[in-house]
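Design job #97: recover the sequence.
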């Protein structure tokens, strides 16, 4: 795990993030603790996904810098970055007529060169990535004929096959039913714990975030309102401040992590 004060491999300094003329965040400083499973939470349109896009090199900051191993992310080639940092974007379009196995195999492209062609190791990694995400039996199917949930797991398999020490996931549980949401988050936790990867995810579900994250970043209106271990960050006053939700926070009976119970609607007296 990263130690407080140790230099983070991935950090943003003095970031101003904008689309066209619309500013999403200003003067934003963020450091992803090495070896953490960092989750960014906050209400819709608070800047969560925008921050993740900036950290992944998909969005160039108007001001400030995103640093990877101390070097500006935009000074490195896309292939160099892709060997260190993998990304699962929010919506991904597969090329027409591509099979599951071929799409997952694209995760190995950053590691290839004229001198290093496709290898047995690549084949093994692709197979393991499909098995880990439960899509091995879909290997020969076309991606565009799969359900939304199946497609999402195929994209996650591709991101895993890239085998980067840093993996960024933008709402990886979108389109998934509850069982597959838990499966995907369990898989992320396993990558973090067993392979020592640093993960950064944007999640909508605060209880999932509190259960799986080792480091939580809470955002509102383009600002970081709080960050730290979920046990310190997820409190009733903070949930009300960030999400406008009155609630109680209790210990999750399964994991001991914070569990948010929304206040009940008051029923009219009969």
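Job complete. Output follows.
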């Amino acid at each position: 795990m990263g130690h407080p004060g140790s230099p983070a491999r991935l950090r943003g300094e003095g970031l101003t993030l904008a689309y066209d003329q619309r500013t999403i965040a200003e003067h934003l400083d963020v450091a992803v603790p090495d070896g953490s499973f960092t989750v960014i939470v906050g209400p819709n349109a608070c800047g969560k996904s925008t921050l993740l896009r900036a950290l992944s090199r998909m969005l160039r900051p108007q001001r400030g810098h995103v640093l990877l191993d101390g070097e500006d992310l935009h000074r490195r080639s896309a292939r160099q970055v892709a060997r260190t940092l993998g990304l699962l974007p929010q919506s991904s379009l597969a090329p027409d007529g591509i099979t599951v196995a071929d799409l997952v195999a694209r995760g190995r492209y950053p590691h290839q060169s004229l001198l290093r062609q496709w290898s047995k190791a690549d084949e093994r990694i692709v197979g393991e990535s499909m098995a880990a995400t439960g899509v091995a039996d879909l290997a020969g199917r076309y991606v565009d004929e799969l359900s939304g949930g199946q497609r999402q797991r195929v994209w996650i398999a591709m991101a895993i096959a890239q085998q980067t020490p840093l993996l960024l996931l933008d709402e990886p549980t979108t389109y998934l039913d509850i069982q597959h949401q838990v499966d995907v988050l369990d898989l992320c936790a396993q990558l973090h714990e067993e392979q020592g990867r640093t993960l950064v995810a944007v999640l909508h579900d605060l209880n999932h975030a509190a259960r799986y994250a080792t480091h939580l970043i809470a955002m509102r209106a383009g600002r970081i309102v709080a960050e730290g271990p979920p046990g310190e960050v997820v409190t009733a006053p903070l949930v009300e401040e960030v999400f406008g939700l009155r609630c109680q926070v209790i210990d999750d009976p399964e994991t001991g992590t914070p569990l948010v119970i929304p206040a009940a609607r008051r029923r009219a007296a009969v």
